[in-house]
Amino acid sequence: MFHKNITYILLTVFLLTACSEDFLDQDTQGIIAPDNLFVDEAGFNAGLNGLYATVRIERAGLPNDNNPTGTTNNLVAEMMMNGTDIMYGNRPAAFDFLNDWGDISLGASASNGFETLFDWLYEAINAANTIINRGENFAGDNIEPAALNRILAEARTIRAWCYRHLTFLFGDVPLVLEESTGETVRLDFERNSVAEIRAQMRADLEFAVQNLPTEFRSDGTMIRAVAQHYLTELLIIQGEYTTAIATALDAINNSGRSLVTSRYGVNASEPGTPYTDMFLEGNTNPSEGNTEVLWVFPSEFGPVGGEGNNIMRRWFTSNYDSTSDNAPGLTVTVDRGGRGLNRVSATNFMLNLYDPTATSAMDLMNVADDRGGMFAWRHFFTLIEIDPPAAGNVGDTLYLRFDPSQPDPRNDRFRVFTRKWDSDTNVNTEDDPQSDASTRSYKDFIYLRLADTYLLLAEAYFLNGNPDRAAQTINVLRNRANAAPITPGDVTLDFILDERARELFSEEHRRYTLLRTGTWVNRTQLHNDNASPNINEFRDVLYPIPQSFIDANIDNPIQNNPGY
């Protein structure tokens, strides 16, 4: 794993706080570090570490002026995952609109969230452009050409990653390819078309496929298969299914990565499954035996200059220690996954994907599909001595709530939840690394894995008129999970989307998946009880361009997205 102290020190170089007047142009006057930094391979790698740290904010809280590495309050990724067919806001706060949608006022919190999201992605783009521009113009002879191309490939993949977010979230946005300095402040940006931006993304990813290594240089960095994965998705969007198939197959067959099909690592001798082993603390990284992971987001408590953390557990784990909303007030422990607030939950539809006949948490616990079973989802707690007496007797079983005969519940603090984000690295102070009541988690976690590439391959096969190969590809994952195999006649776009949910709940950017397949409105209306009556198809498929950017771009007036 790359050294995180320097990672966060470098945030002072790259994460220049944006003001409302020029947040696409980051003012770097007076900062001489880049000129001194990008002089050799070590300097460029250090710059990449800072860029990776910026990227990892996605799974932390929205950054602000006081905490550029992410606050604990509002999960960035929620705006990419929630408000879909499989996820809703159980106890929403700033992002109520992901349940409410429609013509309601988005409110100050949501508007600030859009601005911060937009700002953060352009900060990352500027950091990537700094590395790319300086690498392309590097005049020294102390970096081998292959190493320099690898550096450029990592930065260009992240630039494409940023524009993937921006195009799905906001549609047409400015395409910025040059490093911003104090001499390049602009007030005349244009909104480039999604097609133009995706052409640049494709060029960046194709370069990366040619120049990224197949082996990790350290945990937390990316390999060729990451670029191939995102290129496959882009090729599917562009209708080039044959090329998408070839790209995905190369990532699957020639990357040196493979699906986890056997027990490994920590707890390998304890009850569990190969699928769920990947998400255990100590099993996440390639260096820890994880053969499936393509990209890891590492975390660490308290390094000099900042910290890396995520709040995925806070968002997805039941608030079982509360006594509000009929929660039992259980004691927070590491074994129970740590402290959660149940901000978002799986819809009834999502949970029934593992067994359409299930009507309770007890039913779900016994499903054959390992991805929905007791090691993947939390269905019950066993009472222990330190639990409050009012909860019951020691040894009693308390089942979490799931009742598909009722609408998806709001403010249910004792809802069945995914265990992917369980963590025992929960830190309040540096001297207390096992503090299980902490808000943030410092667990390294999977960001992208090969199973997702398999599902893109299956989709490309299906769209290319080959349901036989699509079924074979999907069955590789279903066999690993002990789920019943399917036949070519079972394969439809809806089935593929269902299978992505079963495999990737809370990992994939579900909103993007549904938007690119043209199914977000229909599937969310069908399967999300809270959002379905409120969605405005005219407006809600794109978020609003932040008004602060529109107001600052005085030399070229631009229009917001329809309906805002």
What can you see in these coordinates?
By secondary structure, this protein is mainly alpha-helical. It has helices spanning 4-9, 11-14, 33-37, 41-55, 78-81, 97-100, 107-136, 145-170, 194-211, 224-237, 241-254, 274-277, 312-316, 348-352, 361-365, 450-463, 467-480, 493-504, 510-516, 520-527, 547-552, and strands at residues 87-89, 293-297, 344-346, 377-378, 380-382, 397-399, 417-418, 445-449. Helices cover 39% and strands 5% of the residues. The chain has a two-stranded antiparallel ribbon with strand order 1-3. Strands 2-8 form a two-stranded antiparallel ribbon. The protein has a two-stranded antiparallel ribbon with strand order 4-7. The longest helix is centred in the N-terminal third of the chain and has 30 residues, at 107-136.
Quick check: average pLDDT? 89
Number of helices: 21
Which bin fits the share of residues in helices? 25-40%
**Widest sheet, order of strands:** 1-3
**Which secondary-structure class do the elements indicate?**
mainly alpha
The dominant shape is globular
Strand content: under 5%
Low-confidence stretches: 1-23, 26-32, 302-306, 426-435
Biggest β-sheet strands, sense, barrel:
2 strands, antiparallel
Question: Radius of gyration over alpha carbons?
Answer: 23 Å
The H-and-E topology, N to C, reads as: HHHHHEHHHHHHHEHEHHEEEEEHHHHHH
Number of strands: 8
> How far apart are the first and last residues' alpha carbons, in Å?
44 Å
